[in-house]
Amino acid sequence: MPKKTPQPKTKPPPNPPKETQSQIQWPPLPPTPKSPYFYPSKPTLQPLVDSQIYLIPNFFPQTLCKTYTSFLASLPLVTTPKNPKRGDAVRVNDRFQVQDEGFAAQLWELTALKRCVTGQRNANGEGNREKEAAGNVNREVWGGEPLGLNGNIRIYRYSRGQFFDKHYDDSNTLTFNAPGQPARPARTTWTLLIYLTGCEGGETVFYPEPTRKDRNPQPVSVAPVPGMALLHRHGEHCMLHEGKEVLNGEKWVLRSDLVVAR
Length: 262
Description:
- This is Fe2OG dioxygenase domain-containing protein.
- It comes from Aspergillus homomorphus (strain CBS 101889).
- The protein is mostly beta strands.
- It has a domain at about 60-75 and about 90-115 and about 170-205 and about 225-260.
- It is built from four helices and 18 strands.
- Strands 2, 3, 4, 6, 7, 8, 10, 11, 15 and 18 form a ten-stranded antiparallel beta sheet that branches. Strands 1, 5, 9, 13, 14 and 16 form a six-stranded mixed beta sheet that branches.
- The protein is globular.
- The protein starts with 8 loop residues before the first strand and ends with a strand.
- The model is unreliable at about 1-5, about 10-20 and about 130-135 (pLDDT under 50).
């Protein structure tokens, strides 16, 4: 198999701002039957490229997407530098990040994510180990025992003309500190993107490596759909990808990473 052409990687972000969960009052999760955020259907994990890219349509209901977009617009977003450091991919967007293990735990436990990844019941009682584990991809694919989500929460806003050039996402080692659980050595293996808005342009495009059977594979394009979550493998197994230029509207993305034991 041909070697990968060297491309910029996303490096671990600098120390996040000192905001804490007590200072950031996230819009409430979870949806309940009496809530306007109630899911019309149970989100499920859908393979786009086996062992590389998975989609979860309707991960956030439409009403919740609007609530989060409005809330995130009130945060102090910072525009990325026009001239990136040497070795970094060119990225032009507005972003905010915070270390919040509590919110990461809510995204894992109170949404469909835990059930989709592990097949286990989440805090809402949804899930079945045998029958609802269509998304229960084995540990080899996830890179180990899934523990939850990275507490490093990132918010991205791409306005018209903004983009993220071709790059690979790095894997990071960390100590996993879920609320109420003992600290565990861990690492990140998959990127989680939750699209909150749609826009013209702004697709996340992946570029598969050529093989003997397919020497010129076609790119895999994912258009932003409000409420859809995308999981893609990163680290040594990451596929080259980019965020296309937004042509009209705004693309809002909520980002974390899947964390596994090491």
